[in-house]
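Ticket opened by: R.M.
Priority: normal
Category: complex prediction / small molecule

The reporter submitted a protein together with fe (ii) ion and asked that the result be attached to this ticket for the collaborator who will pick it up next week. Submitted input follows.
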Amino acid sequence: MERDGAVAFDNLFPMPLLKKLRRSVMSRHDAGELRERGLVRDIAGRYAAVLPFEGPFLAPEFYANHKLIEILGALMGTSHCIGSLEAVIAMPGAYRQHQHVDAPLRFDRAIGKTKKGFQGDLSDLPPYAVTLCVPLCDVGEANGPTAIWPGSHRTALRARPTGEREILQTFPEEHMVGGFGRWVLFDFRVFHCGMPNLAAEPRPVLMFVFTRSWFRDPNLADVFPSVVITKRNLKRIPDRYRYLFMLAPAARRSLWENKRKRNRHEQD
Ligand SMILES: [Fe+2]
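Result attached by the on-call engineer:
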């Protein structure tokens, strides 16, 4: 991760679990429910929709996979949480996305009434957000792999932003292809883009984002909540993993008094 800003492995999740996740996503997609109810964003012919933590997504082997938790601890320390869980469905005909990083960070400084991003070089920062990309099908050149430029994450936070031409000239382009079961972890700063889906079938992937607890993903600024879980399901999460869900509204305690008491008070 330090050298390339991305790493790919096979077999993080057991295949029976992956198949259940795929069934759940595709049945919601086929019913139109995912597009209709999922706090949708459209990206170059693909749509991204927030998924609730329910059904197979409540399996601890998924959200608190022990290998994953160890990796996250090594990359972001003990204070991290789930930023979002989305399905991204690249429909047949989805076209090439522009090259981008998911969220550069400039630590705005407010001096008097002026707010400005920090002007210096922040290239040496450790990761503040990572995406676990879990394809729910085989991914080949034809059905819209993600292209990445390994190593480019170290240029994203230079004082002067890096241009597309420099990235193309400096770093090799790699396409994340592989069989069902392969997954890729990205630093938010690595340059990447989605390639066209030339196949006849939609290409579903999960984008599972983890961030340091102080970071908020600007891509989801108008999507609330980005972590969806009911109070009842949150209670089913073992105590030791509940910190992962700190951004879910269900994780908040009510302030001072509950609504019924407040209403009674207003009537008095
Ligand atoms: Fe992206």
